[in-house]
Structures are given as structure tokens and as C-alpha cells.
Amino acid sequence: MARIRKFVAYRRLKRPYTRTSKFKAKSYIRMSPNVKVVRFDTGDASKIFGWTLNLLSKSALQIRDNALESARQTSNKLLESHLGLNGFHLKVKVYPHQVLREHALASGAGADRFSSGMAHSFGKPIGVAARVRKEQVLFQVNVDKQNLGIARQALERASKKLPCSCMIQTLENK
Q: pLDDT tens digit string along 64-104?
């Protein structure tokens, strides 16, 4: 199986090329890949907690769904092991809806014949990504006051898995 392309190719927030054709079937993406984020809400959503911590993006970019799932898993594991299932509420606030496409180029001898004339290649869907604005909330954790340190540590671990630099915002619920 082929490896996924480095995310530098998809990080920028530019409008993707949209193919317009006189044939209706060629003007849209036929399939949408499955989103790899398993759960967007974990912990106790019904309980009201005193404090909210938000993980904010410092730049505008796209974040692939496997990076979001990896960040969610690391922070969720730390929160569950220290606080249990009822001691927190973790929510993924962005949804990966942008379909990423790739035009697979042939490699090897004589491959230059195949790759000519591809200025606006439409490509096949390879994954999905979330479009994130500057200072948009990526993750939200609700905890009580005594668990603020663990929640902050969980969000710091999640930020290490994301392709952008992040900051943590602490708010008191009133």
C-alpha cells in the first residue's frame, strides 16, 4: 500500500480547483472518504463543570482527520486514566469536511510521457481535512477546578500531534 503524501502539500488554505464540465458526471467528486475521527464527544456530557479549557490554533490551515484522531486519542487517554469517565468532557470542535484529492503520477522509466498537461488535474479522493481559521477552537475540555492541571497537560499533548502551533485558553463557567 502506498504511503500518504506529506501534509505540506495540503496545509495551505487556498480554494481547491473545481472542475466544470459540460458532462454532469465529471463536475463533482464521486465519493467522500470515511472520516477517521471515531468520537467527537467523550467523557460526561451531562455533568456541568466549573472550568473550560480551549485549544486554539495560532494560524489558518487545514488539519487532516488522522491528525485530529491522534490528538484526541492522546488527550483522552490521559484524561480517562487520571479522572475516570465522569471527571471530564472532551469535545472535538472542528469537523473534517474538505475532500483532499491527489493525481497519482507514474514513476520510473518513461514516466514523463504521462505527466504532461496536468496543470489543473482533478485527482482521486485520498482523505479529508478540517479547514481551520486563526484562533479557532479545536478541542474543548470541561473539568472541575482541582483537575485544571491534568486538562492543561492533556491539551498540550494534543497540540504536539497537530500540524500547527496552538495556545490554551482557560475560562471559568458561571
A: 999 999 999 999 999 999 999 999 999 999 999 988 887 77
What's the CATH code of the domain at 70? 3.90.1170.10
Q: Structure pTM?
A: 0.84
Q: How many CB atoms lie within 10 A of CB 113?
A: 7
Sheet holding 61-64, edge to edge: 61-64, 124-132, 98-102
Residue 47, domain member (yes or no)? yes
23 assigned to some structural domain: no
Give CA–CA dist 91/169, Å, rounded. Answer: 15
CB atoms within 10 A of CB 112: 9
Sheet holding 89-92, edge to edge: 41-43, 89-92, 137-143, 51-57, 166-172
Regions in the chain scoring below 50 on pLDDT: none
So what's the pLDDT on residue 167?
A: 97
Q: What is the grid cell recorded at 58?
A: 495560532
Write out the residue range of the structural domain in which residue 57 sits.
33-103+133-174
